[in-house]
């Protein structure tokens, strides 16, 4: 799927603003220097996305999902390969937790990070287009790419945006991906709204 340069640049700016705000909140929460960098953004039509996603993401994933509704609807997901998720949990809570407690600790820690990052991105979008978005509570799961796809259950003309991110906590790099699944014509509504927003409204 091809976007005009104007829409592509506007979309990248919005996502970068959102992850920048999320990095600031994580910095306060952790008391450590945190950077969130978006290295790549890709847009796919869902009918062509299954192969693309399987090539980009590993088979085993740690996933935080947050459905949203409003002027446009869909699901936002923060996705980590399991090794990156394990590294992030160690940085967040240390390595002293008992094995019997690690499942609940991992779920809680990654859910909180996902909540901060996804709310940062979606909040930035909502602020710029000056529209109210309603979020569901984020949920956590560990599963495969195919499971992630089936859970979103999109229509063939749905659009998926992938933002490949690096989360850097005191020189430790954790890789992850932000996936936004847009239902029906929601993505067109979003890009039209962002590209027509008054200059400077992103700030």
Can you summarize this structure?
By secondary structure, this protein is α+β, with helices and mostly antiparallel strands. Helices cover 45% and strands 30% of the residues. It has one domain (5-195): Chemotaxis protein chec, CATH 3.40.1550.10.
Description:
- By secondary structure, this protein is of the alpha+beta class.
- It has a single domain, classed as CheC-like (Chemotaxis protein chec).
- The protein contains 6 helices and 7 strands; from the N terminus they run αβαββααββαββα.
- Strands 1, 2, 3, 4, 5, 6 and 7 form a 7-stranded antiparallel β-sheet that branches.
- Helix 3 crosses helix 4.
- The longest helix has 28 residues, at 102-129.
- The protein starts with a helix and ends in an 8-residue tail after the last helix.
- The mean pLDDT is 79.
Oligomer: single chain
Shape category: globular
- Number of distinct helices: 6
Helix content: 40-55%
CATH class category label? Alpha Beta
CATH topology: Chemotaxis protein chec
Structural class: alpha+beta
Query: Secondary-structure element order, as H and E?
Result: HEHEEHHEEHEEH
- β-sheet strand percentage: 25-35%
Query: Which regions contain 5 or more consecutive residues with pLDDT less than 50?
Result: none
């Amino acid at each position: 799927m091809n976007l005009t340069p104007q829409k592509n640049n506007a979309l990248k700016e919005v996502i970068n603003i959102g992850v920048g705000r999320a990095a600031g909140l994580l910095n306060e929460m952790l008391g450590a220097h945190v950077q969130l960098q978006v290295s790549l953004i890709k847009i796919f039509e869902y009918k062509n996305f299954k192969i693309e996603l399987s090539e980009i993401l590993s088979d085993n994933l740690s996933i935080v999902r947050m459905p949203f509704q409003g002027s446009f609807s869909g699901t936002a997901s923060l996705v980590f390969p399991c090794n990156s998720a394990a590294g992030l949990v160690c940085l967040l809570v240390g390595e002293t937790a008992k094995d019997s407690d690690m499942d609940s600790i991992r779920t809680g820690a990654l859910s909180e990070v996902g909540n901060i990052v996804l709310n940062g991105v979606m909040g930035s979008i909502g602020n710029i287009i000056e529209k109210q978005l309603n979020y569901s509570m984020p949920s956590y799961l560990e599963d495969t790419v195919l499971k992630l796809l089936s859970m979103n259950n999109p229509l063939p003309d749905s659009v998926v945006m992938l933002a490949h991110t690096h989360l850097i906590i005191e020189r430790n790099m954790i890789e992850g991906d932000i996936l936004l699944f847009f239902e029906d014509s929601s993505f067109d509504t979003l890009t039209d709204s962002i590209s027509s927003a008054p200059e400077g409204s992103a700030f």
